[in-house]
Amino acid sequence: MDRVSHILYLHGFRSSPRSFKAQLMGGWIGDHRPEVHWWCPLLPPSPREAMAMVFETLARWPVERMAVVGSSLGGFYATVVAERTGCRAVLLNPAINPARDLAGYIGDLTSYHNPDDHFYFKPEYVTQLRVMTPRAITRPERYFAVVAKGDEVLDWREMTDRYDHVPLRLIDGSDHAMSDFEAHLPHILRFLGLLH
Q1: Is 47 part of any domain?
Q2: What are the residues whose beta carbons fall under 8 Å from the beta carbon of 31, sequence distance 6 or more?
């Protein structure tokens, strides 16, 4: 596969472009591959609005030269994007059933990176997640999943079951935030054709 020219990074639930992984990967791209277009938007809480915003921009991107990277809920969104566009996707501890998992979070919430940033997670957002869930993973060779057995939020077995035919890096230990992300970044960059 060709080296990617455009990368979309999708952060997780209650996260932001200030996430550790987004900062680390975006920083590496800026330092070593400045010709690659990097976009890490702040996603609205509504899944429908988040995907509408993303697809509006992606309509102008070269699908065959782009990739999406997503963490947790962003990994779920990345799967939606990859299944709809056919692009490459990197999934970091991806949420498998966010409609189920986030049903208990309806109400007023704050962002992890800015406690002053409040948003309301509405019941209809759960329905939006359920409706957009891809039925199957097609062309698994265009995916690369990094899954931590030490994830304290999501079940690594559920992740590996969902992406059972996908090239996978299974980590003993680590955590949901993947705080050892720096050790796994080279494998992601190789998959994207950005490191040899």
Answers
A1: yes
A2: none
